[in-house]
Amino acid sequence: MPTEADPTPERVLFDGRPAVIPGVGALLLSILTVGLAALFFWFRSLARHYRITNERIVIESGVFSKRIEQVDLYRITDYVVERPFSQRLLGTGNILLEAMDRTTPQIRIDAIKTDVMALYEQLRLSTEQEKRRRGVRVVDFDEDPTGGHAA
Question: Which of 23, 24, 66, 145 is 20 to 30 A away from residue 94, measured at CA?
Answer without folding.
Answer: 66
